[in-house]
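Re: weekly structure request thread

Next one in the queue (176 aa):
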Amino acid sequence: MYHKNYFWIYTIFCTFIHCNNPKNKKKQTKNNNDIKIEASNMDVYYYEGTTLKYIIQTPKLIELKNGDRQYPEGILFKVYENDQLLTTLQSAHAVQYKVAGILEASQNVSIENTSTQQKLYTQSIILDQKKEQIYTDQPVKIIRNEEILTGKGLQADKDFTQYTILQPTGTLDIAE
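Done, posted below.
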């Protein structure tokens, strides 16, 4: 409960400062009717009970009246399990669709599973929070151990522990 109250107090405080800063007045004129909250340098913590589930860090957050969120200057999305960092997703741009439960990240997207040390690179990816899946139809590059896997399209679980490259390319080492 403390964390939720702190988040809302912090959000309101940041919004108040941001909206009353004369330097930011020009930024608010675009689609001002759709914007509910606009904030800078945000760290958002999500808990279930007292358990940290994920953190979103962004230089700029725009929340629309319909609940969708835009991260026009990038996002760092950290997923936790048992209070341990499990997966990170980073991109130069992202949009979170509230009703659909989808986070769409684009431009220089990277995902890293910290427990398996696997890294994924692509230009766009969708994180479906309802289905707990990650997918893309774009070219992908996965680095694991000393292997580099490439292909087009990917489906993975939400933690990027199990995945399938839909159209693999390149050379694979197969142990006999």
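The two ends are 55 Å apart (CA to CA). The longest strand covers residues 35-48.
Next request, please.
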